[in-house]
Amino acid sequence: WHADQTGETLVPTHCCFCGVQCGMYLRVNQAGKVFGVEPRNHDINRMRLCPKGINAYQQVNHPDRLTAPLIRRYRDKPFQECTWDEALDFTVAEIRRIQEVYGADAFGMLGGASLSTEKTYLVGKFARVALRTRHIDYNGRLCMVSAAGANKLAFGIDRAGNPFSDILLSDCVLIAGSNVGECFPVMTQYIWGARDRGAKLIVVDPRETPVARTADLHVPLKPGTDSAFFNAVLHVIVRDGLTDEKYLADHTTGWDAVKAAVENYPPDRAAGICGVGVEQIEQVAHWFAGAERAMAWHARGVEHHSQGVENCLSIINLCVATGNIGRPGAGYGTLTGQGNGQGGREHGQKSDLLPGGRSITDPEHRREICHIWGIPEDELPLAGTSMMEMVHQMRRREIRGLIATCNNPFVSLPNHHVVKEGYDTLEFHVQLDFFLSETAANAHVVLPVTVWAEDEGVMANAEARVVKHNKAQDPPPGVRTDTWILCELARRLGTGDKFAFSTSRDVFEELRIASAGTVNDYYGITYERLEETGGIAWPCPTTEHPGTPRLFEDGRTYHPDGKIHLQAVAWHPPIDPYDETYPLSLTTGRTVAHYLSGNQTRRLGALVEQTPRPWVEVHPSHGFSNGQPVRVVTRRGSAVYPALVLESIRPDTVFVPYHWPSPTAANILTIDALDPRSKIPEYKVCAARIEAATTL
Ligand code: SF4
Description:
With about 700 residues, the chain is an alpha/beta fold. The chain is built from 22 helices and 28 strands. The chain has a seven-stranded mixed beta sheet with strand order 5-4-18-17-16-6-7, sandwiched between helices. A six-stranded mixed beta sheet has the order 24-26-25-28-23-27, with no helix packed on it. The protein has a five-stranded parallel beta sheet with strand order 10-9-8-12-13, with helices on both faces. β4 and β5 form a beta hairpin. The site of iron/sulfur cluster has 14 residues, from α1.
């Protein structure tokens, strides 16, 4: 990149935070250091950035950066700085010791979906080839996996069906369980652009979020009742003859079962389950089915449930039954929470998947990957377990050692006391991070890694558009990339030339080949093409292919029969039962100033000033005043927060944001019940009570 007359260089890249992946320039001074940000007129965000994006650069040269490996042999001793050789030799010795004594699967690995796609590919390969363990999973398990499961079941492909720009063409936009204005702020330009054109905007969310306040209709349903609500909406559509029968006949299987299932959800019954008005259900049905082009986008509010996959399927059913698939302005998508929420789940760091979205249980898929990786088929481990299940395996000493990068489970996993117990039981834990997170502070070894501005690589945003992040500065001395660390560990573990990667580009070239011919085909995407175009949506099978911004335009899905496989959905109550002691619903979520576990944003001045601590939102009927200390109690623990008294929150619901650690961690309170298919935790609903506390 070229310096201007002041010596300053503008490096084009993308925000490291959410799945919108706004384009930005990082400002680099004559000394080669990142010192600021400028908006970039990228197609995704058109010069806009949100508070997180504007402040992201402050991480890069932050005084809290880890700049040397840290080591301690016992958790009750303080960390000592050490050389890389000492840290890596100790790590390799512990991996060998644990695996020789207890077997390969006794050592686990956890990755993250804020890593570049190259690094997520490497995490999966390192676990299977260097560690030879089945226990590999990642923090997207806490984020997008319910949508992923539903997408695969219905369409045979796991991504949004439409680009963001299609929202502008829609006549009815339904946002379900997504606080878009705070979690994906720049997305609002599309939603409000559609509304300003005259589209109906419907928001289905227990809370009156900023976007809900601007909607034509806000439906504040009771947490944990999503599929009952969407089944009832489809019931009305069927009852009133508003389905697209030709589309259903030509393009789907399973419609009769879906139709029979929604019979059981007449609006008066669903209104009772969901705590909303019959007229709201009828209105949503008529606006959505009556629109020429309708779209539904959802996020964690729908997905973080023990019935998360069903919730997503109930929304897919609504879109398909009304023929709103595969057309400009008509479709379906999930808003990925993490920067690389989409790319992070495509290429092998998920316990059940191999690169290219291949199934680890499919013999042909296993054969293909073994060929690419150059390993015998019987050396490729079997499917592992999910992140929360791995914690329980730690508690049972089935997993005794762990290497982890890009996650902070001490804040982000549910039922914190159980999580802490699991990690405390580990005989050896090495964590890679650039700040000393709450989880890293509990490890035996901490390896300092680069931030996003210190390496290049690709990410896929919520549209499945692959974008390229560029390197803006060299890392501090003593800091290494995840790529270098994993390759160096692999070499010391005796993998020969299987990890001969020097750069992200080297990894990307292998990833392209590993994905070729799969549904998640990246073969036609090159770094050069990404730099020229600003992003390409996969599948992209050849270097001449333009990419696939909108799916299903030819009426075919990615199932072998080309049909949409509709799935009937039955609602069940949340796992944590309400009773006289715990009569309220606790729901959790994010706030505009912070990202995920807050390990990054809780250090950035302006964001901390904007939102220094968590709170609990309560309805005035509970008799608390603003700022009054309120204790939230669940079957797993309690925490005290200042009250934010809101007329708009349901009297039977309280809300706590989750970005902070113990003792105010929302995840002290949440339940670790999992969706049986996606294994996502039920963060969005558990039974609770509130009571006055004396101090914060
Ligand atoms: Fe970054 Fe998302 Fe904000 Fe865009 S909307 S600046 S990608 S956090």
